[in-house]
Write a structure and sequence with these properties.
two-stranded antiparallel sheet; 15 helices; Amidase signature (AS) enzymes; 39% helix; 11-stranded mixed β-sheet; 2 domains; alpha/beta; 481 residues
Length: 481
């Protein structure tokens, strides 16, 4: 294995800009590693190596001429396979879209391509991002590079695994209920869940439109900051992106967190939490105090209702978003074609997996006549209470420290046949998603089985610079003392 691929994205930026290495050299090193190990790990669904080489050569020419497009010019990345890419297959890890080639780019990839990033390919996900392990992918589970008997988390499991396996310098994932933070913790990398609307969702296949966010996964919080600098901001194509200035996310990374107050919510330490996860939170608390921060206990009283509210709101929005997959406009066409109803039925029966069908049925029921007020409207009221819990907490603390997941990465197949167990894996990430705030997970320690465990730092909406600063300081205290 080439030593080049072990460097962080930020270290590679320095080496590329000083012309110590070339983008082509770096790209070939990643390609070699992907070709050597991807068959075993099942991370990439589509590779774009020829295009990557062309992009790398173009980057090298610009850098040599002193005309780099950005700090990320020449940096090889991967994209979760729900990010549309013009002329490149985008499947959402579903049979219904296995041959779909978009005629346009998602805004997030437009921005990264314009910054000179090199695309190595598209990586695996739970089907249409519905899951927390990549086990619902129509193309097989991705294996955790740290322990291939375990899942990498999900739904951005392919993104986290691509970074952990040294297949790329950074990746773009999506987080609806924890799908960046949980796989980052499972794979021992850093993942940033941005505030709702901070990054454009245009061109990314939706799951639940009022919850979906797009964000970076990379080795370190600093790496995530560099990626966010490129992708954040207003997009005329996405009305949920506000007219809000994009700060310099690198500016405060080196600032001390001394004097900051951190809250630990008692509701996150339930009977089901693994003691080793609690131990990592205790270790992180000690690091914060060592760095001059103050840690206090807080309460987020409506946390216990978060999973119930989420699994009404998300499936309801899923049922609406999935209605476009009818076998007529694009994607797989069912074999039964005698009537319109048969086309719809056979298309979805043949093209969609069990988890997607389950969520469509739940959502359709919750939105149906006579049940909308009892379920969807009530869940939205609970969502408001959860947001108010966070608003009240942030009047007293600068950030919240809590687990990213109740356990380290679990064995492949552990939750087979029991969707409720799988849903409970999201217990600590869902509340922040319902509130629309930002959060970051990054590696701090390991379980006795050598599986990574990362804490989660949550901050108010549109204070990503604070989350990144805190994450960077704690990360460096652990990894660069």
């Amino acid at each position: 294995m080439s030593k080049l691929i072990e460097y962080s994205l930020s270290e590679l930026v320095s080496k590329l800009q000083s012309q110590e290495i070339t983008s082509r050299e770096l790209t070939e090193a990643y390609i070699d590693e992907i070709e050597s190990r991807n068959e075993d790990l099942n991370v990439f669904l589509t590779t774009t190596f020829d295009r990557a080489r062309e992009m790398a050569d173009a980057s090298d020419s610009r850098i040599k001429a002193g005309q780099a497009l950005s700090d990320l010019d020449g940096i090889p990345i991967s994209l979760k396979d729900v990010v549309c890419t013009k002329g490149i297959t985008t499947t959402a890890a579903s049979n219904i879209l296995k041959n779909f080639t978009p005629p346009y780019n998602a805004t997030v990839w437009d921005k990264l391509e314009s910054a000179g990033c090199v695309l190595l390919g598209k990586v695996n996900t739970d089907e249409f991002t519905m899951g927390g392990s990549t086990e619902s992918s129509a193309f097989g589970v991705t294996k955790n590079p740290i322990d291939p008997t375990c899942v990498p988390g999900g739904s951005s499991g392919g993104s986290a695994a691509s970074v952990a396996a040294h297949f790329c310098a950074g990746s773009i994932g999506t987080d609806t209920g924890g799908s960046i933070r949980q796989p980052a913790s499972f794979c021992g990398v850093s993942g940033l869940k941005v505030s709702y609307g901070r990054v454009s969702r245009w061109g990314c296949m939706p799951m639940a439109s009022s919850l979906d966010t797009v964000g970076p996964i990379a080795k370190t919080p600093e790496d995530c900051a560099r990626m966010l600098q490129i992708i954040a901001g207003k997009d005329p194509k996405d009305s949920t992106t506000p007219e809000q200035a994009v700060p310099d996310y690198l500016k405060n990374l080196g600032d001390s967190i001394s004097g900051m107050t951190f809250g630990i919510p008692k509701e996150y330490f339930t009977d089901g939490i693994n003691p080793e996860v609690v131990s990592i939170i205790d270790s992180t608390k000690a690091i914060i105090e060592n760095l001059g921060g103050k840690v206090v206990d807080i309460s987020l009283p409506h946390t216990k209702y978060a999973i119930s509210a989420y699994y009404i709101i998300a499936p309801s929005e899923i049922s609406a978003n999935m209605s476009r997959y009818d076998g007529i406009r694009f994607g797989h066409l069912g074999t039964e074609k005698e009537s319109l109803e048969e086309i719809y039925s056979s298309t979805r029966e043949e093209g969609l997996g069990d988890e997607v069908k389950r969520r469509i049925l739940i959502g359709t029921y919750a939105l149906s006549a006579g049940y909308y007020d009892a379920y969807y409207r009530k869940a939205q009221k609970v969502r408001t209470l959860i947001k108010q819990d966070f608003d009240n907490a942030f009047e007293k603390v600068d950030a919240i420290l809590c687990p990213a997941a109740p356990t380290p990465a679990f064995k492949i197949g552990k939750n087979d046949g029991d969707p409720l167990l799988a849903y409970l894996e999201d217990a600590f990430t869902i509340p922040a998603s319902l509130a629309g705030i930002c959060g970051i997970s990054f590696p701090v320690g390991f379980s006795k089985d050598k599986l990574p465990i990362g804490p989660q730092i949550l901050c108010p909406a549109y204070t990503e610079e604070r989350a990144l600063q805190i994450g960077n300081q704690i990360y460096n205290a652990v990894h660069n003392p």
